[in-house]
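Homework help board

Subject: predicted structure for assignment chain

Our instructor gave us this sequence and asked us to write out the predicted structure in token form, then describe one feature. I got the tokens but I'm not sure how to describe them. Can anyone check?
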Amino acid sequence: MPRLSVNTPVGPLTLTEDAGAITRVRWEDGASDTSPLLQDAAAQICGYFDGVRETFDLPLTVHGSDLQQRVCTEMLNIPFGETRTYGDLAKAIGVPAQAIGQACGGNPIPVIIPCHRVLGATSLGGFSGGTGVETKVALLKHEGAAGLLI
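My token output:
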């Protein structure tokens, strides 16, 4: 599968393409494959971090359970600069909040699918990418959604 790395303020991200869709974003460096989709995805990631893009317009495929796919779809509906709680997503989907937390942690396409915008009712919750919660805070600050944090 073609992969392309892009440097970002939260570390190097490697984008993976499969069958004409982005299927994975990982915090790692060194991939240098190229395709029109990977080039577009890299440009959109750079635009996001440069402050000129708030949404992504990319074909995505979430490999995972039905619940994982439903949670990722709900996360895509959270606007730039806003947050939701695990409980909010749980109510929308009709599952326990703990299941939402597990699905967020298993998000295969972080940043593009904004799991960083999902918080606990009384805490930040977790974050499985980058340096963990520090990366989540950096993404929320970038989006201006960190007022509740500082």
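Reply (TA_rk): Your tokens look well-formed. For the description, you could write something like this. The chain has five helices and five strands. That's the kind of observation they're looking for.
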